[in-house]
Specification:
The complex is a heterotrimer of chains A (about 600), B (about 375) and C (about 250). Chain A is an alpha/beta fold. In chain A, about 40% of the residues lie in helices and about 20% in strands. Among the domains of chain A are: about 15-265, ANL, N-terminal domain (Rossmann fold), CATH 3.40.50; about 470-600, 2-Layer Sandwich (GMP Synthetase, Chain A, domain 3). In chain A, helix 2 (about 45-60) crosses helix 6 (about 160-170). The longest helix of chain C is centred in the C-terminal third of the chain and has 17 residues, at about 165-185. Chain C is globular. The chains are: A alpha/beta (about 600), B mainly alpha (about 375), C alpha/beta (about 250). Chain A: This is Long-chain acyl-CoA synthetase.
């Protein structure tokens, strides 16, 4: 596929025209479901179109021009999608803001994007705008989805969602919407995704319709999706992965998206919805695995034996190239008696395939899910590649790698070891940052991912770290900390880790422990602790982590040995500056914030 | 385990939590219908007896399990039902009229005596019901022309639409007739409990004060519950009369009352299924003991039948053991087993360890 | 000297884990308070220590002896007395009979203690021949505390003494609790929802949330904590709009 070819899905070369066709085709079929007050309500494709149209018309009334960003600061809900498609249809650029961002961060994004219209979810998010409204004078209109808590509130710049819809419904020229839609070209922006900024300030990556149509087309070629699929949407929609999986792909494939009630209820919602396909970050899969393992350790003797036998059988079956009839039967039995019930408990009974990405996954974890009967594939991608760049498939699953590139894309490793990607999914540019954009491409048009990787003989990619993260020790040695950190993170007791060593004599490490698993460990051994901080100071816990570190050290060279470590004694949340919204430690912040701890180790 | 994807609030008061539940129930009913083809006449008759006891148990359960009223005299209602039905049929009234009428009259009788009785509770109510039993017993003897007095009467053979449902002649039909009655009553009972009336029964059982605060007329509710209870028991009594064939007042002794109470208590107080499980245990255990005894005799040659009263002692011991170790009843144990399977293989060991309960408010659990 | 030492306590309500590894210490002569919202596990903790519930894991040591899993009457005999939530006085007995029952486990002459209780609670002396069921809530609370005192406990555990009492009466009860601790050197473990008065009266405190201890230390430190102030002491932040409906996440720093 030439990068200049026209790419079309079902005859449509833009997401929005595909969307209109789908809404017309599916009409009353259920498109979205949301749980309110205990029951799941269904919403149709027709409603998708009509509400988005009202929003689009209203935005036109408010003077939104083509290629103007529109900010959305809300949790996952269908109004997010209505706004997304409404804005995109009239040529605007929908951009999401993380709900865990602070008022200051919101102001930065507003100024950087130059958006005039901001959508906020409720009073909590509205307060962020109110707090720093004077720092973002560019915002002229604020629309609030939820009225709760704002009954006596009024502000000249603020209107409520229903008022906006009324504005669109009463717009004099209803045809403006379709007219604007017709004008959208494949190379026009489809959406803007702000990179989470582990290093430096966030940059707004522009993804075009062509990028996204390619993604859904290539995705369909690689994986099988069905119209009847049920999905669960819970990762933030401001992240490219969830946008692709829960917005653009369902438009293309016609699947139904169920919205999780809140991040806290994801597991219950998964049980209820029992999705057919699910994409998660390794943290989710690790959490599920931890829960099950903890339950197993507390289970009765019959249960434990049944569990072990079933997983043993499942493991052998899923690993076998050509399983014997006996093994097949045994696996069926295991599925029927044990594993099936377990899958129902986890909400994975209908999952044909699940995917993991965003961070390295432990191969043992992937195999465990395979044994459970839920094929898991690892994939790799970035905002700048439009979502997914490489992916394994169920039939061609190379565990420990992130799979082969999507059809139509190419990979290569340059002389520095950096991964370069080329293909129709590569983003167009960073918003208003031409120099940064230019920096990200090579002279012959390859994307410089900033990741270091290897491509094996099958063409499968393995990522070993980020270039910027490379540590140069005082002795002049180059170390990729990500490899060591990933190995540490595979342990259930470690949630995240940052390796320190820049300009230092040797490597050390700051570790964030997993509260639940370490607590269980302490409980099982009657190790006393009161609050989280005291848990991190317990001698036995330090020993436990020391053991993990020693084990990991065995796989690494002499210069890469972790000589000492400290545990972070605060329970960090996504609202802390040390963590990204996807719960990863920000290297620079950690280095700064915990300087005392670090210096202590040298 | 099955998780329900709730899309409507009606789901909350559905009789069955999900389709699988309904399927299992239909399967069970199907099995019951096919029973005459699966077992011989002796066991079929036993099954019919169990069903009759389950019906009587359901009757008592309405009063005791769901409304919290103790009754030591429910054998009286069995008697009234049996005699009314037999007498009416002997007077020429067809079964289809006599049978419901027997239930209705018993129910009315129960409701009437309930009105003074429901103002009492606890031990006072128990004594009152015992008194009612004694009165009814005397009434049976007094109303000799109808009841045949000391010698008793015979319940005539049932014929509906030309088909004979004779207890000995057409045991299959008789069994199916009983099964139909039981299914109808169970279905009605289950629906009653999810209606506002049923909920008012539960409210009165759990907290009279709160029930009154909700606007429930406690006296009327109790009387209604007692009336329904005695009515259903009357129907069971009528069927029992036909089952035995020829009966007198001795059939309905105070031991029957106590057995009935055991059925509902050991079966599981407060659950319809408890009546069935209790009936199976109470009617089945003597059989099992007899079989074991015969088996023991045949294999080892030890004849325990020669020891008088051993059966009864064994029966009592087993019951006492149940009461001590399974206070939540057979159905309670069944629920635990079911939960264990639902969570399989991850059910926590000691999940069902009984906790000490010291507060009155905790004893419900 | 540590009088009570709870380590890694895990208690279940059927399938629900109510306490997830709680460890606390109570030193001689001090008042320790356990704070927490409804359902945090405070009463479960009390009941487990008193022997009314059995823990799944963990240990409870009182004066060096293990009392975990013991029957409640043995626990009282060891010197740990529970003043239960909701008073639970014997309504059909007189005040004096209630108090005498409190001394059930004692073999010595307790007349002196009876007078002591009356000196702290004069209203009880006035009504000592009256049925306890006719007392008001505050008086019943006094009776319950007095009854606990009669056992000459080494550790007195009070479960929500302010429950259902007016603010004025709560202050009175807590004044008496303070005095008892200071004058009679009664060590106390206090579970309270009224964080204000609990933090004002106690020396040390622990905060329980969802079965875990999230903060512990001296009551000065607790009073100074932002999270305690916002979530337990009711300090509210005003924003531009006025009252805030949403609450930020607790961080327990």
């Amino acid at each position: 596929m030439n990068t200049d070819d026209v790419i079309s899905f079902d005859g449509h070369s833009t997401i929005v025209s595909l969307w209109v066709a789908r809404c017309a085709e599916y009409g009353e079929r259920t498109c979205h479901r949301e749980k309110k007050l205990g029951i799941w309500h269904a919403y149709s494709w027709r409603e998708y179109y009509e509400t988005s149209k009202k929003i689009g018309l209203a935005l036109l009334e408010l003077g939104v021009k083509p290629c103007e960003p529109v900010l959305i600061l809300a949790e996952d809900r269908r109004e997010w999608l209505y706004t997304d498609l409404g804005a995109a249809s009239i040529g605007g650029i929908p951009a999401g803001v993380y709900t865990t961002d602070s008022a200051k961060q919101l102001a930065y994004l507003a100024n950087d994007s130059g958006a005039r219209v901001l959508f906020v979810e409720d009073d909590e998010q509205l307060d962020k705008w109110l707090e720093s409204a004077d720092q973002m004078p560019g915002i002229e209109h604020v629309i609030v989805y939820e009225r709760e808590g704002l009954a006596t509130f009024s502000h000249p710049k603020v209107r409520f969602y229903d008022e906006l819809l009324a504005l669109g419904e009463n717009a004099p020229d209803q045809d403006r919407f379709e007219q604007a839609l017709q004008k959208v070209r494949p190379d026009d922006p489809r959406m803007m995704i702000y990179t989470s900024g582990t290093t430096g300030a966030p940059k707004g990556a522009i993804l075009t319709h062509r990028n996204m149509v390619y993604q859904v087309l290539a995705g369909l070629e690689r994986f099988n999706f069905k119209e009847t699929d049920e999905q669960l949407c819970f990762l933030p929609l401001c992240h490219v992965l969830e946008r692709l999986v829960s917005v653009d792909a369902p438009i293309a494939n016609g699947s139904t998206v169920n919205f999780a009630e809140s991040p806290e209820t994801v597991f219950e919602n998964m049980q209820e919805v029992s999705p057919h396909t699910f994409v998660g970050v390794p943290r989710i899969w690790e959490k599920i695995y931890s829960r099950v393992t903890i339950m197993r350790s507390d289970a009765g003797p019959i249960g434990v034996r049944a569990y072990d036998w079933a997983f043993n059988t499942g493991m052998r079956y899923s690993q076998a190239e050509n399983p014997s009839v006996g093994l097949r039967l045994a696996n069926q039995l295991a599925q029927w008696t044990v594993l099936g019930n377990l899958r129902r408990m986890l909400g994975l009974a209908n999952a044909r395939r699940v995917a993991t990405g965003g961070a390295p996954s432990s191969p043992d974890l992937i195999r465990w899910y395979g044994a459970l009967g839920v094929p898991m594939v690892e994939a790799f991608g970035m905002t700048e590649t439009g979502g997914i760049a490489t992916a394994n498939t169920v039939d061609d699953n190379h565990i420990t790698t992130a799979g082969k590139p999507l059809p139509g894309s190419e990979l290569k490793i340059d002389d520095n070891g950096e991964l370069l990607i080329k293909g129709p999914g590569i983003f167009a540019s960073y918003w208003n940052k031409p120099e940064k954009t230019a920096e990200t491409f090579t002279s012959d048009g390859w994307l410089k991912t900033g990741d270091i990787g290897k491509i094996d003989e099958h063409g499968c990619l393995t990522i070993t770290g980020r270039i910027k993260d490379v540590i140069i020790t005082a002795g002049g040695k180059n170390i990729t900390p990500t490899e060591i950190e990933s190995s540490l993170k595979f342990s259930p007791y470690i949630s995240d880790a940052v390796v320190i060593g820049d300009q230092r004599k040797y490597l050390t490490c700051l570790i964030m422990i997993d509260q639940e698993n370490v607590e269980k460990f302490a409980q099982d051994r009657a190790i006393p602790f009161s609050d989280f901080a005291s848990l991190t100071r317990a001698q036995e816990v330090l020993e436990l982590i020391r053991e993990v570190v020693t084990t990991v050290n065995k796989d690494f060279a002499q210069v890469e040995q972790i000589k000492d470590f400290r545990l972070i004694d605060l329970l960090l949340t996504a609202e802390d500056e040390e963590l990204t919204p996807t719960m990863k430690l920000k290297r620079s912040f950690v280095n700064e914030r915990h300087k005392a701890l670090i210096d202590d180790m040298y | 385990m099955r998780v329900v994807f709730k899309t409507s609030y009606d789901r909350d008061i559905d009789l069955h939590e999900h389709g699988l539940d309904r399927g299992k129930m239909l399967g069970l009913v199907g099995l019951m219908i096919l029973l005459p083809f699966l077992v011989n006449d002796y066991y079929l008759a036993e099954a019919a007896n169990t069903l009759i006891w389950a019906l009587a148990g359901m009757g008592l359960m309405i009063a005791v399990g769901h409304t919290g009223q103790v009754s030591l005299g429910h054998a009286a209602f069995l008697a009234i039902g049996a005699y009314t039905d037999a007498a009416l049929m002997n007077a020429g009234v067809p079964f289809l009229v006599a049978f419901p009428l027997a239930g209705l009259l018993t129910g009315l009788f129960g409701a009437v005596i309930a009105i003074p009785a429901v103002r009492m509770s606890g031990i006072y109510l128990a004594i009152a019901t015992l008194a009612v039993f004694v009165i009814v017993e005397e009434l049976i003897l007094l109303l000799e022309p109808i009841t045949g007095g000391v010698s008793g009467i015979a319940a005539p053979s049932i014929t509906l639409f030309g088909i004979s449902f004779d207890r000995y002649g057409e045991l299959h039909n008789f069994y199916w007739l009983i099964l139909a009655v039981v299914i109808l009553v169970t279905w009605g009972y289950a629906n009653l409990m999810r209606s506002p009336t049923g909920r008012s029964f539960l409210a009165v059982r759990d907290s009279e004060v709160s029930a009154r605060a909700m606007g429930i007329n406690v006296t009327r509710t109790r009387a209604l519950a007692f009336g329904l209870s005695s009515g259903v028991t009357g129907l069971a009594g009528a069927l029992m009369g036909h089952y035995i064939g020829f009966f007198n007042y001795e059939l309905f002794s105070v031991f029957i009352s106590i057995n009935l109470l055991l059925v509902v208590t050991i079966g599981g107080l407060g659950f319809i299924q408890g009546a069935f499980l209790g009936a199976v245990l109470i009617t089945g255990m003597p059989q099992v003991i007899a079989i074991l005894r015969d088996g023991l005799n045949a294999s080892v040659g030890v004849d325990l039948g020669s020891i008088p009263g051993l059966d009864t002692v064994l029966f009592s011991v087993i019951l006492i053991l149940f009461i001590i170790f399974e206070p939540t009843g057979l159905y309670g144990r069944w629920l635990k087993i079911r939960t264990w399977f639902e969570l399989f293989p991850l059910a926590r060991r000691d999940m069902f360890r009984r906790h000490k309960t010291y507060l009155k408010t905790e004893r419900m659990k | 000297m540590t009088v009570l030492s709870v380590r890694n306590l895990e208690t279940f309500y059927g399938a629900i884990m109510a306490l997830r590894g709680v460890s606390i210490d109570v030193k001689q002569g001090e008042i320790v308070t356990i704070l927490g919202a409804n359902g945090a596990g405070k009463t479960t903790l009390m009941k487990t220590i008193a022997g009314l519930m059995e823990p799944e894991k963990g240990s409870i040591e009182f004066n060096g002896n293990s009392i975990s899993g013991h029957e409640p009457d043995r626990v009282v005999a060891e010197g740990v007395v529970l003043v239960p939530e909701g008073r639970e006085v014997f309504p059909y007995l007189t005040i004096e009979e209630n108090l005498r029952l409190g001394a059930h486990t004692r073999r010595d002459n307790y007349a002196e203690d009876l007078e002591l209780v009356y000196s702290y609670f004069p209203i009880l002396k006035e009504r000592r021949k009256q049925s306890a069921g006719y007392l008001s809530g505050g008086q019943q609370q006094m009776l319950a505390i007095g009854r606990g005192l009669m056992a000459r406990p080494a550790l007195m555990m009070l479960d929500e003494p302010s429950l259902g009492l007016s603010p004025l009466l709560t202050q009175e009860i807590f004044d008496i609790i303070s005095r008892l601790n200071a004058e009679q050197q009664v060590t106390m473990l206090l579970v309270e929802q009224n964080a204000h008065i609990a933090l004002a009266t106690a020396h040390t405190g622990y905060v329980l949330e969802m079965g875990r201890i999230v903060m512990g230390g001296s009551t000065e430190k607790l009073r100074a904590s932002d999270d305690i102030q916002e979530f337990y002491l009711g300090r509210s932040e005003e924003t531009e709009r006025g009252q805030k409906r949403w609450k930020r996440r607790k961080t327990w720093r």
